[in-house]
Amino acid sequence: MGGVATKIYSLKAMEPKDIKALALGLKNGKTAVMATDTVYGIMLAANTRDNLEKLNKIKNNPPNKYAQLLCDLNQAFTLASVDDNFRKAASLWPGGLTIVARSSEEGGKISGVNTIGLRVPASSLILDIIGIIGAPLYASSANLHNRAVCETEAAVLALFNGLVDFIVLDGNRASIPSTVIDLAGEELIVRRAGALEDKIKKLLS
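Structure (tokenized):
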């Protein structure tokens, strides 16, 4: 995928027309690396399963490796099979919490399996983009398979300029990913500690 003419934005300088252009590009299959409220991430619209494989190719991931979905709150409750624990955990959204849940019928169409990983980010840019697209975003941390996540603007540009269609920069990001909890089984499992582990354990204890 080398040789892409990457459009680079500074988040603080983005105007509504820039956000719309970025969202429409993603809706039409373009790729982006953007700053989130946790780490920098690679994102594609989840309006076709082909984009999941495109994401895996960018990262040199094994085929069929699944990515989390960034979505708004309404989408999350549509895509998951909702129970009391899901509702309690979702009270921590928006923010750095990824919930793995059983897929609803609609969610299964996107995930292709009976579970789905969802996060509602505390990012007005990403939520605006999701609203314009009308679909969630496949998202994964900004790194290549088994390599360190890009924490600085310089690292993002060095790795992804020319590899993806859009880059949105917003300073450096400490490598503190979202907490990942698994509610798909009988008991809560913390798959990745992240920043909200203590809060989620208290909430669901």
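The chain has one domain: 7-204. The mean pLDDT is 93.
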